[in-house]
Amino acid sequence: MSLLGKKAPVFKAPAVLDGTSIVQEFSLEQYIGKKEVLFYFYPKDFTFVCPTEILAFQKKLEEFEKRGVVVVGCSTDTEETHLAWLTTPTNKGGIEGVTYPLVADTSKTIATNYEALAGDWNYNEEGELEFEGTPVAYRCSFFIDKEGIVRHETRNDLPLGRNIDEMIRVVDAWHHVQEHGEVCPANWQEGEDAMSATREGVSDYLSKHAK
């Protein structure tokens, strides 16, 4: 199930802010009408691919912020585990220095509502409730506009890390569309030609760039 073009599910949950303090009722609703949001899920704290992604987002945080985009991460770990990881130095497997919010989805309801959970509950033949799959989140990412609408989403399996630069490119493309009313062709980068969404616009673009 895709959330593309739909309202991002709302929630209130604990989160760690600025890498140092826990709040109990964090929500993306605070950004409605003010900021766009790059909201992403990762599988688990104190693991292997996850810190590379979390730190890569931090490294590019200024690029997101100057585009008016807030970065927010989320996993099914507790807020206390988030805080412990955030205060562990990187040379000891931690993510110290990360300043954007990390949400704690211990009930797994946020991941479920975003269709990001890597499994689900089902009853076995004995009528017992069992979890099928892995009870953590896939590497899912959602670019949410100022009105709370999902404009881009990606879903990676657990071993596959994301390309953070590609997410910045998507933000640039969305901003170009909004500002100029043009559409962005394959592999478009900021500063390159876009095109009008007409037959003539496509023909003009391809005549210049097809070779």
Walkthrough of the structure:
Belongs to the peroxiredoxin family. AhpC/Prx1 subfamily. It is found in: Cytoplasm. The protein has a single domain, classed as Glutaredoxin, CATH 3.40.30. The model has no long low-confidence stretch (mean pLDDT 94). The protein has six helices and nine strands, in the order E-E-E-H-H-E-H-E-H-E-E-E-E-H-H. By secondary structure, it is α+β, with helices and mostly antiparallel strands.
How many DSSP H or I helices?
A: 6
Tell me which CATH architecture applies here.
Answer: 3-Layer(aba) Sandwich
Number of separate domains: 1
* Through-space gap between termini: 37 Å
Oligomer: single chain
SS-based structural class? Answer: alpha+beta
- Return the average pLDDT rounded to an integer: 94
Relative strand content? 25-35%
CATH-defined fold name: Glutaredoxin
Contiguous low-pLDDT stretches (5 residues minimum) are: none
CATH superfamily: Glutaredoxin
